[in-house]
Amino acid sequence: MAIRPHWKGYLKLSLVTCPVQMMPATSESEKVRFHTLNRQTQNRVVSHYVDAVTGKEVKEEDEVKGYQRGEDEYVILEDEELENVALESTRTIDISTFTPRDSIEWIWLDTPYYLSPDDPVGEEAFSVIRDAMDAQNMVGISRLVISRRERAVMLEPRGKGIVLWTLRYGDEVREEDSYFEAIGDGKADSEMMPLVQQLIKKQTKDWSAKMVADPVQERLLDIIAAKKKTLKKPVKGKAKPQPSSPASNVVNIMDALKKSVAAEKRGGR
Amino acid sequence: MAGPRANWKGYIKFGEVSCPVALYTAASSSERIAFNTLNRKTGNRVKREFIDSETGDPVEREDQVKGYEVDNGQYVVLEPDEVAAAIPESDKTLRIEAFIPCSQIDTTYFDKPYYLAPDKMGTDAFLLLRDGMKKQGVAAIAQTVLFRRMRTVLIRAHGKGLIASTLNFDYEVRSSEKAFEEIPNLKIEGEILELAEHIIGTKKGTFDASTFEDRYEAAVAELVKAKIEGRTLPKKKAPVASKPSNLLQALRESAGLGAKETKPKRTAANANRRAGRQKAAETAAKSKQAAPPRRAG
Questions:
Q1: Same domain for A143 and A101?
Q2: Which of A223, A257, B169, B193 is the most exposed place for a label (fewest CB within 10 A)?
Q3: How many CB pairs under 8 A join A and B?
């Protein structure tokens, strides 16, 4: 599967510059890919653009960006003009600061991208920057214009490449205090801590991609397969709900913990 | 005083222990600069229309339905209630299925973070889970129906509370190994690596994401102003990639060990570049750069 790069530009550390390309680490593609149909005709539905005043179809090459100045007043901006916006960060990821990997809290991580060299000429420089960050256990901080916004970005070495994260803006992350203040400064009951830790240890597993499998998509495929056989007959019956346990208010946590640990032991894990 | 409004209320359950909890949005998206799409020929705005691919007639929203292609051109139609039927009924419980070592967490799966806090009573169990996970250096994996979607959630200790991040599904995250497979396996060592590590040392600082400012909108406003006044902004020159044969020299110069005659020029260029930079980063970087490089020699 060939993936189109999302962005091409340069990675820069001081006087070292190398051409790079970048693509989103996440993909929009669903496992079960639907198309929009016209229920009346069963034909595919497509979208196009029409002139808001004349109602006539507008060809793609006639679409252009407009910057609104007044109620009905726009300044046309061509893509080439926008490229000349006076920011180096449209084209160059210039690493300004390095900071320890764990000093950027996860809550700031917004969208991940994969960054790799775009030309053999830059492979060594790219590798040098990546390996030096890795050796120092540092991440790089820079700025980059993506999708018409200038973002703070964090660069983290990963395997042979670099993961670039856009970081959230200050006004996007809510202050945790108002959510957590009611918890108070209490610590966990010291008598119960050993039991909890025992339970956690027993239930600790290695990360696996299976943990992020999607059971709903499998079910959708089943529904589709059933419908395909009896095309036009509606599928009856609801999917089985997950067995729901009574969400009891556990009165005696100690007892519950002991029971949990005992259950784990029986399970032989 | 009324507290913040919860986005979801339910229970968290580990082993036989459960306690009532609430989820609160921890991060939202702010808006970016909005452009309108215009018809170049008329200068009018354009609007999107949905049409039948065969007949060309507009298709109203209520006639748009999801179809899954089973054979070429043949579709199975799924009505919204049928899609909803594939989602299990919510039992409002974040049931912890496993704990995983924090060091193994693959952050590329992260979707949205939520603050997870006790709801009303039951703080004891909450504190046990929080402190137990902290002590063991693990996070918890749970699956539940959130906002009418089945979601996998990663729960970890964060300050006094917990953060629950929804995770993307396996098919929504590209493999980094595949993405990086064409990068050659170059072994970087010796002086070249030492110099790069030294440069990193000189640029070591702290970064506070909350103080970062987006300069894009202001830059576009500047561009528009220039255009209205009939000026054109200078075309930007593309950066020049370092030649592999000059890499070592470029690193030496970056580390301040290069030829003397080029040095003043470089310093001026660096100063200019830094002038526009965000303040916190600048101060942090400056204070570090002012100090003599500790790792030199």
A1: yes
A2: B193
A3: 588
Residues of B in contact with A266 (CB under 8 A): none
Contact B132 A259 (CB under 8 A): no
DSSP three-state, residue B216: helix
B253 in reach of chain A (CB within 8 A): yes
Distance from CA of A242 to the nearest CA of B (A): 6
- Kindly state whether residue A58 falls inside one of the protein's structural domains: no
pLDDT tens column, B206-264: 999 999 999 999 999 999 999 999 887 777 788 888 888 889 999 999 988 765 444 44
* Residue B260 C-alpha, separation from nearest chain A C-alpha, in angstroms: 15
Does one domain contain both A19 and A99? yes
Taking CB atoms within 8 Å and a gap of at least 24, the contacts of A186-194 are: A186/B123, A186/B127, A187/B127, A187/B131, A188/B124, A188/B127, A188/B128, A188/B130, A188/B131, A188/B132, A189/A253, A189/B124, A189/B127, A189/B128, A191/A254, A192/A253, A192/A254, A192/A257, A192/B128, A193/B128, A193/B131, A193/B132, A193/B135
ipTM above 0.85, yes or no: no
At residue B140's C-alpha, the angle toward residues A134 and A173, to 5°, is 70
Confidence of residue B46 (pLDDT cuts 50, 70, 90): very high
Distance from CA of B290 to the nearest CA of A (A): 14
Residue A74 within any structural domain of the chain: no
Distance from CA of B243 to the nearest CA of A (A): 7
A43-53 mean pLDDT: 92
* Whether residue A140 is found in the same domain as residue A199: no
Residues A93, A95: Cα–Cα separation, whole Å: 6
B-interface mutation test, from A64, A90, A97, A143, most B Cβ less than 10 A away: A97
Number of domains in chain A: 2
Instruction: Give a yes or no: residue A65 inside a domain.
Output: no
Q: What is the pLDDT of residues B70-106, one digit of tens each?
A: 877 788 888 888 888 888 888 899 999 999 999 999 9
Q: What pLDDT is attached to residue B259?
A: 52
Rg (CA), chain A: 27
Are A193 and A105 in the same domain? no
For A127, the domain range is 7-29+84-171
For chain B positions 208-227, those within 8 Å of chain A (CB to CB) are 209-212, 214-216, 219-220, 222-224, 227
Residue A251 has pLDDT above 70, yes or no: no
- CB spacing of B224 vs A17 below 8 angstroms: no
**Interchain contact B293–A (C-beta under 8 A):** no
Look at B67 and A34 and tell me if their CB atoms are within 8 Å: yes
Domains and CATH numbers, chain B: 1-175 (2.40.290.10), 191-288 (no CATH)
